[in-house]
Design goal:
Elements lengths: L8 H6 L4 H4 L5 H6 L1 H15 L7 H14 L6 H10 L4 H15 L1 H17 L20 H15 L4 H12 L10 H15 L5 H10 L4 H15 L1 H19 L1
Helix pairs in contact: 5-6, 5-7, 5-11, 5-13, 6-8, 7-8, 7-11, 9-10, 11-12, 11-13, 12-14, 13-14
Length: 254
Amino acid sequence: MKTRLAASALALLASGASAQELETTLPDAVGQVAPALQAYSTDDLFGSVWSGEAMSMRDRALVTFAALMTRHETENLGSYVALALDAGVTPAELSETITHLAFYTGWGNATAAAEAMAPVYEARGITAEDLPAVEPEEMLPLDQESEDARQTMVQDNYGNVSQGVVDTTEELLFLDMWLRPALEPRDRSMVTVAALIAAGQPEQMTFHLNRAMDNGLTQEEAGAMLSHLAFYAGWPKVFSAMPVAKEVFASRAE
């Protein structure tokens, strides 16, 4: 019985395969229990969404991974890891995504994702030498003016609530993790936004979506990410995120 997405789905999608061919990547149980769900998966999710030109397959694989990790859906995560690797996401980028999202989705989700990924890395001969250094030799440059403004805002608003949170946000996140070179700033921002959507936390999106677009994510790609994540996070979470995206897009058009 098939219980996970087959890595061969990438080749099928890349070659413009029919939805009927992609149906073989679904668990057998789907067709046995919910044939209508199988049809939506085959015709719409795999047949249309994954092949959409507004966002690359590599980016779709990365944001899907981020959403599944955020939702603690580890049973099928290994198969999506294989799919992401085949789509061009590097082992180092996936490793760094786990480390990054630990801060945004929790240590438990990151630990579970690492456990699900380990067999895929082992099977592919991926070793510690292929992964980001604990302490990189050179960090990305810091936009000091932007960081000063962010830190002042956080300090003024929350310093009397939890100075510990204010301090670790500065020291561990924005003066350390966000400057690690193993994940491009655009991708780091993109997976953060995907995780916020999947977690149902749109109130945190304004800053990070603006940052993602400053880092190179286009409005078309951001819109495609919302459409893609509707299938993995659910329509309610995406519709909760839509007003935030609308405001961000409008503010940047002024």
